[in-house]
Amino acid sequence: MSAPEQLPEIDNGLLRFLTCGSVDDGKSTLIGRLLFDTKTILADTLNAIEKTSAKRGMSAVDLSLLTDGLQAEREQGITIDVAYRYFSTGTRKYIIADAPGHEQYTRNMVTAASTANLAIILVDARKGVLTQTRRHSYLASLVGIPHLLVAVNKMDLVDYDQAVFERIKADYLDFAGKLGIKDVRFIPLSALNGDMIVDRGDKLGWYEGPTLLEILESAPAAHTEQAENFRFPVQYVCRPQDSANPALHDYRGFMGRVESGEVAVGDAVTVLPSGLTSKVKAIELGAVQLPRAIHEQSVTLLLEDEIDISRGDMIVKSAEVVEPVKQIEATVCWLSETPLQPARTYLIRHTTREAKAKVASIAYRVDVNTLAQEPATTLAMNDIARISLKLAQPLVADRYADNRATGAFIIIDESTNNTVGAGMIV
């Protein structure tokens, strides 16, 4: 008897998504429920959280424990650091980032949002749209997350009332209109009971839209919605030293990650900021020769000509050259408890390149509640502002709206080596 034919696994591409919102909106419980109902929790993990829940005198398993891994988080019942979880279904793989809701941990939320392609913004049905809901929505929009899903949670605590859901939806749409958010969807659910997460349940019959998992399954993956220019920041120049193999003496490989676009053997390329040109002779992934490389692949490029290339240089297609700049306008989220000091010199880290920088001017600071632009001479922790930076060395940068990888940078305090700010080039 022949073996049954196996159906090929469908792959819709990796989806990175973020859960955010105000304190106690149920973000960790939502992720726990999603993992539990998709049966992607290991038996020993489930056993451990069952024991912890029993110690607390709970009759049911506390699913929030799946993401709250720090002892301080479990003691206080809050999320402090970003928790990442990985799971897969029959159609795609996921990376989930559970962001903290407290205002003092907003900087952690910015870190998680920088790589997400979809954000689930939780709203407590009893409380409606709060200040931190607006803050996280603004940040999600600011860092270029293209798809927002507003999940009105704890519907079980308002008797699954459709009027409550519609009122919150109207409030949020009013705020989203001021932000210019284009793609926002709404879903009512109960993370505690599992209504409308994976299964529809029987309490929300008035809602005819898809479940949370169905929305995630159909969401576009990163790099798939628009054509992107090829950007390859050089991380390392590989010159093997092997006296037993003379052929390696002429080997010069440029190692890095394709941040966007794609490249093929034979393509004409330009090295920036020098402007030198050549053609791609070979593309290697370990010991394997590739005909082409695509976004998010880490590869080694070999060029036909011997040209000077160093770490921090950017290899682009010759038809997609961008002009290196020594002054940038950017929207910055200040992450440090130490305020911005305009007279100081900071270090800008952009892809694999670093440059010293000074603040030329602060155009305005944004009030995240009203979106009003306020004058400012310095920035405190969690402030968001439009600033101008003068650079000591040129950067090869795109607008953040065009390319999230080459349009973003971090600001580093040279004296402590701490990351003090995150910026998006406008």
TrEMBL record:
Cited SUPFAM superfamilies: EF-Tu/eEF-1alpha/eIF2-gamma C-terminal domain (SSF50465), P-loop containing nucleoside triphosphate hydrolases (SSF52540), Translation proteins (SSF50447)
EC number: 2.7.7.4
Keyword check for Disulfide bond: no
GO terms classed as biological process: sulfur compound metabolic process
Keyword tags: ATP-binding, GTP-binding, Nucleotide-binding, Nucleotidyltransferase, Transferase
Statement: the UniProt record of this protein carries the keyword ATP-binding: yes
Every Tr-type G domain range: 12-227
InterPro entries cross-referenced by the UniProt entry: CysN_GTP-bd, CysN_II, CysN_NoDQ_III, G_TR_CS, GTP-eEF1A_C, P-loop_NTPase, SO4_adenylTrfase_lsu, T_Tr_GTP-bd_dom
Gene Ontology molecular function: any one: GTP binding
PANTHER family: TRANSLATION FACTOR (PTHR23115)
Protein name in the entry: sulfate adenylyltransferase
